[in-house]
Amino acid sequence: MFSFTYPLLWLVVLAQTLVCLGLLRQVRLLRGVALDRPLPAGSRVPHFSGTDIVTGRRISSTSLNGGPGAILFLHSACPKCLNLADSLHGSEISKLGRVLVVCGGDESGCKMFSERLGPKIPLLVDTGADVWNLFGVSGSPSAVSVDAAGRIVRYERSLKAADLREMLAVAAESGNRGAAERALVAKMQGI
């Protein structure tokens, strides 16, 4: 009986080793992936830059300067993202504020969004999820609204077209309030 249990123990050790290696592999895959901890409201927009696949021009986080605006996070393999892009029309969005699309996934898949949203909406391909990680975004479709001062107003996940319109309106209102408050402070300092 001793000879039977000894090999059985080694099989148990081997099975546990395989489970541990599998867990370590998953942890390594998760490293660098945002765990849906978005930047809080009031945070400054972190700096990022890239090339707009629509125009070939260099774009960056400063593209939203003078906002209000929103950064829309879409993924090329996301059916909800395609539905959202179909329900938005670039000219309609650009009337509400500045919008920048950050697309995760492959470039050919991201080009579908530029075709659906129109040429007025800059689109940055983020294959390494670098921009997504800067903002703490892990799901799509998501958006971050930004006021005129370059501060985050709101984060929204599982976004719909109406949500984006509302976010841009709130960001515009926030920017107007901020401008009024700055003007009041300047006036009081002048007294």
In short:
The protein has 191 residues and is of the alpha/beta class. The chain is 48% helix and 18% strand.
Helix/strand order, N-terminal first: HEEEHHEHEHEEH
Taking all Cα atoms into account, the compactness measure Rg is 23 Å
Number of DSSP strands? 7
Q: Kindly report how far apart the N and C termini lie.
A: 96 Å
What does this entry look like structurally?
By secondary structure, this protein is an alpha/beta fold. It is built from 6 helices and 7 strands.
Keywords:
five-stranded mixed sheet; 7 strands; elongated; 6 helices; 191 residues; alpha/beta
Helix-strand blueprint:
Layout (H helix, E strand, L loop, with lengths): L1 H29 L18 E3 L6 E3 L8 E7 L3 H9 L2 H7 L1 E7 L2 H11 L5 E3 L4 H6 L6 E5 L5 E6 L3 H30 L1
Parallel strand pairs: 3-4, 4-5
Antiparallel strand pairs: 1-2, 3-6, 6-7
